[in-house]
Amino acid sequence: MTSPTPLVDASALAVELSSPTPPVLLDIRYRLDAPDGSAAYAAGHLPGAVYVSLDDELAAHGDPGEGRHPLPSAAAFQRAVRRWGIDDGDEVVVYDDWNSFAAARAWWMLTDAGIAARVLDGGLGAWTRSGGALQTGVVTRPAGTATVRPGRRRRLDIDDAAALARDGVLLDARAPERYRGDIEPLDPAAGHIPGARNAPTTANLDSDGRFRPAEALRAAYADLDGLPVGVYCGSGVTAAHAVLALRVAGHDAALYPGSWSQWSNTPGRPVAIGDRP
């Protein structure tokens, strides 16, 4: 089950929150330089929002060969979903204060598991600019009963990614300097998957951190019409953001969760450098 539109704006969300059946709000506060967003959340969040730890609840931790943010098991994700107070049939809205990168990871995982979810377009900033109030402290909802059924969304393993780069379209959502191999601050090798095209997901946003209009995104990705498309990034987080943008543009792109952190940790996988695929 997925919502017909993956985004909701702040004014529409305010109306929904005052309705008899408001959505469940999840605050995915996370940044690369501040992965624990719990203090920022407690200092001010949307009223009723539950804090979600990306590192602890939206990722597993294991061998580096799985990547930096591998997807958790279905059982672990179900425990998290129930902790957030979600029941079967609930609508969920997720947000963050980091250009919706972390929120998009939650959106992908929830909708992949059959839970209707949308992203607050523009995140926390859009809410406060619209005059929305903030609540301080920690919100705890009664435990939910939702059952997760992962597998609704398209995903790639490492061999699928290699094949798609060769036979379809594999997009690299990282910054151009990481794609080219000029720098690599996090993973053991610099460069990109041979055959992958650079499409930084930051280009999908306007100056306020909102997604560009659907018409603009459709025009930007018009050359993908009718082609199989997949996306990767450093660790599978911002790639989910690109999948979300592509969904707005009308494309059902696959996610490579392992992304560059898995590829570069796997012996024998080739590495390309420079501007060209």
TrEMBL record:
<feature type="domain" description="Rhodanese">
    <location>
        <begin position="19"/>
        <end position="136"/>
    </location>
</feature>
<protein>
    <submittedName>
        <fullName>Sulfurtransferase</fullName>
    </submittedName>
</protein>
<dbReference type="InterPro" id="IPR045078">
    <property type="entry name" value="TST/MPST-like"/>
</dbReference>
<dbReference type="Pfam" id="PF00581">
    <property type="entry name" value="Rhodanese"/>
</dbReference>
<dbReference type="GO" id="GO:0004792">
    <property type="term" value="F:thiosulfate-cyanide sulfurtransferase activity"/>
</dbReference>
<dbReference type="InterPro" id="IPR036873">
    <property type="entry name" value="Rhodanese-like_dom_sf"/>
</dbReference>
<keyword id="KW-0677">Repeat</keyword>
<keyword id="KW-0808">Transferase</keyword>
<dbReference type="InterPro" id="IPR001307">
    <property type="entry name" value="Thiosulphate_STrfase_CS"/>
</dbReference>
<feature type="domain" description="Rhodanese">
    <location>
        <begin position="164"/>
        <end position="272"/>
    </location>
</feature>
<dbReference type="InterPro" id="IPR001763">
    <property type="entry name" value="Rhodanese-like_dom"/>
</dbReference>
<feature type="region of interest" description="Disordered">
    <location>
        <begin position="183"/>
        <end position="208"/>
    </location>
</feature>
